[in-house]
Write a structure and sequence with these properties.
By secondary structure, this protein is an alpha+beta fold. Helix content is 32%, strand content 19%. The protein has three domains: 202 residues, Histidine kinase-like ATPase, C-terminal domain (Heat Shock Protein 90), CATH 3.30.565.10; 175 residues, Ribosomal Protein S5, domain 2; 181 residues, 3-Layer(aba) Sandwich (Rossmann fold). Helix 7 packs across helix 10. It is globular.
Length: 664
């Protein structure tokens, strides 16, 4: 029988490759870390030392820049465990370095090693190991010194242990030296200024902890130790900014949940410093379990909500609001500088680089503490309160004057809007949102639950047609597509034509569908419509979003002083985290009831607002090309949506079913 040589384009079993161990990190480093420079992989090591300090086990951290370009991080914490791991049958230290998703920070429920930590995924130090040409670890623990050496992710010198001298028997801690591999990074050099800024801010978040940066080559040494914590750090940052003067003294404080606090675990909470300025530089920094979150997230949303509600309450109480002026959160927040440090038991970050917090409960936690504290502060210092209130009113008046100059746009040059559209009242296009909702039932709940000031609702009847291969001149044969075009105010164009964004009637267009298969299909059909016929809404500055509705509701009955609670979970992972918190709070198994939503129509207006439409608590996924270019995205959508691509679609599903959801 004649053997046939496989062509380069043939797709067979041998085409499938399985990445093992640390290979996924080396193959796609950009998925796990910032590849601009090695700073983030060094930060992973620093964060482990900081987690020891956060737990109260470490007082000193030394970061050393060595002459050969390596970086050493040393702490006086408990030292990484080195004994035999019961599952892997190798040293636990080796497991932590060479296995993804291995660490001491998963078990939050039964007296684990860490209650609060920044490391969540057990991936951080293994990323560092995978992307370094060499790593050396020294652990001082229980009267012994333990050493291990790795190169390119693999152990080259097995763990060696030797007893410490009698005078050093009580020494404990860890020292890790890393040589980043330059082939994985755009620049092999670590920014000294960024490293210094990182260490300085971490020191401020841990009052009393001493952090030192030593450059061996220049013999330069800098020590940070902020006994005043955030206050001293904030004032120092303010003094470094030019032309910045405070309107009032800073509003600062901290609050943490106690054992009896409803809905939260003991120790969860926030410390903050907030100040308003009339001009100059705005300072805004937020942290979660010592992790910097430059992308903000739900903890900043909680701060924003708490500040707004407290200032608005003060304005209403003192009758300060002029006639015809309405305050919105942005008016209060525009000139607010802040530094907040949040502690959350199981924070959910966006991506491994953890630049944005996604934990839904953080809004409620922080908003509650900030509002109650600020209301007390404003009414204690009424003069300061009036200054802040007048500043917010000033910006509300500026905003109202600017939006009055903008004439309300009418879609397609017509004065008639689709009959099913329930429009919003605001004429501020940048603030307005359109929700395209699956089904009349969910549309009715959305209409009742929305903020009618800036949220508009357009319900769809069933699935729209697949418009991927439809000529634009035939699009309006579908009433649903015609209504969408009229509502957003744009005439559909092919991808090579331009769209005049000045006619756009909403700053956000949000797809709101069920979390089931039919809902996902509707999402894909709408995405195909916008990508093919309204491409400039997606690239380069997307206004298209997908609203994520919860799958589960957890009902907790009355227990002692605690009232009935309802907690929502976006998916199975969030449900697991919620149940973990309930276990930790002392509730016995099955004390609570979990119900699964079959669709948006099952939610009443209040539930839909709280979980999916409230800007402070919802989760919106912004639709963009991401790492794909226009051509790649079109190729993928062709396979998914084209009628003539059935064979390609089948091959994709059969051979790559693990990435089909991602492509969708």
């Amino acid at each position: 029988m004649e053997t046939r040589k496989l062509s380069k384009t043939e797709y067979s079993e041998s085409s499938i490759r399985l990445l093992k161990g640390l290979e996924p990190i080396k193959h796609r480093p950009g998925m796990y870390t910032c590849t601009e420079s090695p700073l983030h992989i060094i930060q992973e090591v620093i964060d482990n030392a900081l987690d020891e300090a956060l737990g109260g086990f470490c007082k000193n951290i030394l970061v050393t820049i060595n002459i050969d370009g390596s970086i050493s991080v040393e702490d006086d914490g408990r030292g990484i465990p080195v004994g035999l791991h019961e599952d892997e049958e190798i040293s636990t230290l080796e497991v932590i370095f060479t296995r993804m998703h291995a660490g001491g920070k998963f078990d939050k429920n039964s007296g684990g090693a860490y209650s609060f930590s920044g490391g969540l995924h057990g991936v951080g130090i293994s990323i560092t190991n995978a992307l370094c040409s060499r790593m050396e670890a020294i652990v001082w623990r229980q009267g012994y010194m333990h050493c291990i050496v790795l190169e390119n992710g693999e152990v080259v010198e097995k763990l060696k242990s030797s007893p410490l001298a009698f005078r050093d028997r009580k020494r404990s801690g860890t020292k890790i030296t890393s040589w980043p591999n330059p082939k994985y990074f755009g620049s092999p050099d670590i920014s000294q200024s960024k490293l210094r800024s990182l260490l300085r801010s971490k020191s401020a978040l841990l009052p009393g902890i001493k952090i030192e940066l030593l450059n061996v080559e220049t013999s330069d040494s800098t020590v940070w130790q902020y006994d005043q914590g955030l206050h001293g750090y904030f004032i120092e940052s303010l003094n470094q900014s030019s032309n910045t003067s405070l309107l009032t003294p800073p509003f600062e404080g901290e609050q943490y949940a106690k054992v009896e606090t409803e809905g939260f675990t003991e120790g969860e909470g926030v410390s903050w410093v907030v100040a308003w300025t009339e001009d100059g530089t705005i300072i805004r920094e937020s942290y979660v379990n010592l992790i910097s979150t430059p992308g903000g997230g739900t903890h900043e949303s909680g701060l924003r909500e708490g500040l707004f509600n407290a200032v608005k309450s003060f304005i209403d109480m003192h009758l300060l609001l002029p006639k015809g002026v309405k305050i919105i959160p942005e008016d209060v927040f525009t000139r607010a500088s802040f530094i907040i440090s949040t502690k959350i038991l199981d924070p959910q970050f966006q991506g491994q680089t953890k630049e944005r917090l996604n934990s839904r409960d953080a809004v409620r936690l922080i908003s509650k503490y900030i509002r109650s504290s600020l209301e007390l502060w404003l009414n204690q210092y009424v003069l300061y309160g009036k200054k802040i209130a007048n500043l917010a009113i000033k910006y509300a008046q500026i905003r109202l004057r600017s939006v009055k100059k903008i004439e309300r746009k009418k879609s397609l040059g017509l004065s008639i809007l689709p009959g099913k559209l329930t429009d919003c009242q605001s004429i501020d296009i940048s603030r307005n949102e359109l929700f395209i909702v699956e089904g009349d039932s969910a549309g009715g709940s959305a209409k009742m639950g929305r903020d009618k000031e800036f949220q508009a609702i357009l319900p769809l009847r069933g699935k729209i047609m697949n418009s991927w291969e439809i000529n634009r001149d035939c699009l309006f044969s579908s009433d649903e597509i015609y209504n969408i075009a009229m509502a957003i105010g744009l005439d559909p164009h092919s991808s090579e034509d331009s769209i005049d964004r000045s006619k756009l009637r909403y700053g956000k267009i949000c797809i709101l569908s069920d979390a089931d298969v039919d809902g996902l299909h509707i999402q894909v059909l709408l995405l195909a419509l916008f990508f093919r016929h309204f491409p400039q809404l997606i690239d380069p500055h997307s206004v298209l979003y997908i609203a994520q509705s919860p799958l589960y509701r957890v009902d907790i009955p009355i227990q002692g002083k605690r009232l009935t609670q309802k907690i929502y979970a976006l998916d199975d992972n969030e449900l697991k985290i919620i149940e973990g918190k309930l276990y930790k709070s002392g509730l016995r198994d099955k004390f609570w009831n979990v119900s699964r939503f079959k669709g948006l129509g099952e939610m009443n207006a209040e539930q839909l607002w709280e979980t999916t439409m409230n800007p402070n608590t919802r989760k919106l996924l912004r639709v963009s090309l991401g790492n794909f270019n226009l051509k790649d995205s079109e190729t993928n959508l062709n396979i998914l949506m084209s009628k003539g691509a059935a064979s390609s679609r089948r091959a994709l599903i059969e051979g790559h079913n693990n990435i089909v959801d991602t492509l969708d």
